[in-house]
Specification:
The chain is of the alpha+beta class and 158 residues long. It contains five helices and five strands, in the order E-H-H-H-E-E-E-H-E-H. It is 32% helix and 25% strand. The protein is globular, with a radius of gyration of 16 Å.
């Protein structure tokens, strides 16, 4: 297995990673139906605070993660947020996810990050077990706030 940080010259691998996310998360609508154009992806992959890592076997993408650097204001440091991490079912329980996180650590450190953080959904026991093995658990609440009235975010009436 090889792990590579995807950069602007890796558009094909980035699109393959989107397919991995679609399959692993069973969410083709989010990852395949409205993919950004090449210019958008090239620009994103060229950002130093954007991390797209692909785990490949014989050139085929079998897993990966996407993370973002969040520069802090209270101190001169950053945090890195793993937004998505997935491994194809046929390659799970083989250390791929752990290897991806380990690969991210020095990249994060080189950007001035003091911590990497990630969320897991209740009931996603394999992810919770992995992250518990690698870090310290915090139980927090997550809220999605739509940015306009036409947003298709869930609404609550009070």
């Amino acid at each position: 297995m090889d792990i590579i940080r995807l950069k602007k010259e890796h558009l094909a691998q980035m699109r393959a990673l989107l397919s991995v996310f679609a399959e692993a998360f069973e969410d083709e609508a989010a990852y395949l139906s409205s993919q950004p154009d090449d210019d958008y992806l090239t620009d994103l992959l060229d950002q130093p605070g954007f991390f797209a890592l692909a785990a490949t076997i014989e050139g085929a993408v079998v897993g990966g993660l996407v993370a973002y650097e969040l520069r802090k204001f209270e101190q001169k440091r950053s945090e890195v947020y793993i937004y998505d991490l997935a491994v194809l079912e046929s390659h799970r329980r083989q250390g791929v996810a752990t290897a991806l996180i380990e690969y991210l650590k020095p990249l994060a450190r080189n950007r001035g990050a003091w911590v990497i953080f990630v969320q897991a959904d209740h009931g996603d026991d394999p992810a919770i077990a992995l992250y518990t093995k690698l870090g310290v658990r915090e139980d927090v609440l997550h809220f999605d706030i739509g940015v306009d009235s036409s947003s298709n975010m869930p609404t609550t009436t009070i």
